[in-house]
C-alpha cells in the first residue's frame, strides 16, 4: 500500500524484531503493546506470569531485570517499582488491613515507619516496635500480620537474630518481609539462610543502591518464592498503576555484571576505613557488624558466612562534640559528599540526631551525634586522609 508521507514516517518499513545478538539485551519502551489479533487480545493473561499486555505490567526489558534480581536474591517471582520506598509501601498496602498489627524493628528505614504511621492514622493499622537486637521483644498478638526485618539496620547497623525472628513469625503465621538492601542478595541468601534453610516470605530491595551502582537511578524490587503471595502483590501493583521506565531498567541491567565486584570491593574498602576509625579518639562508638562488640555481631557471623558487610560504617561522636562541631566535621570533608543513599561510586556522609529517631531506649548505643559513612569505590587511603583532615578542624566543646 502506498502511504502518504506522514503515515510513512510513522509506519517505517524496517520493523523491530529482527534481532541481532548483543552484549546487553534490547531495550523496549512501551505504554502500548500491540496485540497480533483479537484472539491474542482476549487470551491475554495480564494477571498471570509475565505476559505482555500493557507497559505498566512489564516488557521484556523489565522482566529480564526482574528475573536477574530474583536470581541474585535466591527468590523466584519479581515485581519492580519506581523506588525502594515504593516497593516497601506496596508490601504494606497489599497485606495490611484495618485492625491488623505490623511489627517493625526500632532501627527501621525511617520512611517505612512514616508510611506505617500514615496507615495507622488513616486505616487503623497498629504499628508495634521491637528491639532489633532482642528478638524476645517481638511479642505478636493474634492480630499480627506482618513482621518487617532489616539486616543490618541501615544507620546503626545492628544485625538482628533473623533465625529467631523468622521462626517466631512462622509459628504465629505472620508474613516476614526483609528490606534486603544492605545484603543485596550477596551477603546472604534471604530465601535460604542459616544451616536450617530458613526463608523470609518477601524481600524488598532498593535497587537504587548496589544494583544501580551509579548513584543516579531509582528503583525497587519485591521478590517472593510463593506464587500466591506474588499474585496478591501483582494485583496491588497493577491496580496502583505502578510502572518503571524501560530506560531505567536497562541502565540497572547494564550495571548488574559488575555488582558483585563493586559490592565486595566496597565491603573491603569499608573494613580498611573501619580499622582506622577505631583508632580515633573523637568517637565513643564505631558501628559495623563485623566488629566483635557490634550489636548483633554473632548473628551477622552466623548468617553472612562469606564475611561481607556492605559499605556502611557509622560513628558516634563523643558527647563533648556538639552539633556545631560535628556539622563542621561533615562540611570539612572533601571526597565524602553530604547526601542520602549508598552503593554508588562516590563515598557519602550523613549526620543523624539519633535520639530523635528511636522509639525504644537503645542501651546498646552510646549517646552522641551519629555520622554514617557510605564507602564508595575511591582508594581507602584517600578516604582515611579525608576524614583525618576533617577531624583536624574539630574543637571539642567542653560542657
Ligand atoms: C534500607 C533502605 N531501604 C529502602 C530505601 C529506599 O530506597 P529508595 O531511595 O530507592 O526509595 C533506602 C534508601 O535510602 C534504604 O536505605
From TrEMBL:
Entry-linked InterPro entries: Cys/Met-Metab_PyrdxlP-dep_enz, Cys_b_lyase_bac, PyrdxlP-dep_Trfase, PyrdxlP-dep_Trfase_major, PyrdxlP-dep_Trfase_small
Keywords of the record: Lyase, Pyridoxal phosphate, Transferase
Cofactor: pyridoxal 5'-phosphate
Single GO MF annotation: transferase activity
Catalysed conversion reaction: L,L-cystathionine + H2O = L-homocysteine + pyruvate + NH4(+)
Keyword Signal: no
One Pfam family of this chain: Cys_Met_Meta_PP
Top-level taxon: Bacteria
Similarity remark: Belongs to the trans-sulfuration enzymes family.
Record-given protein name: PLP-dependent transferase
Protein source organism: Acinetobacter chinensis
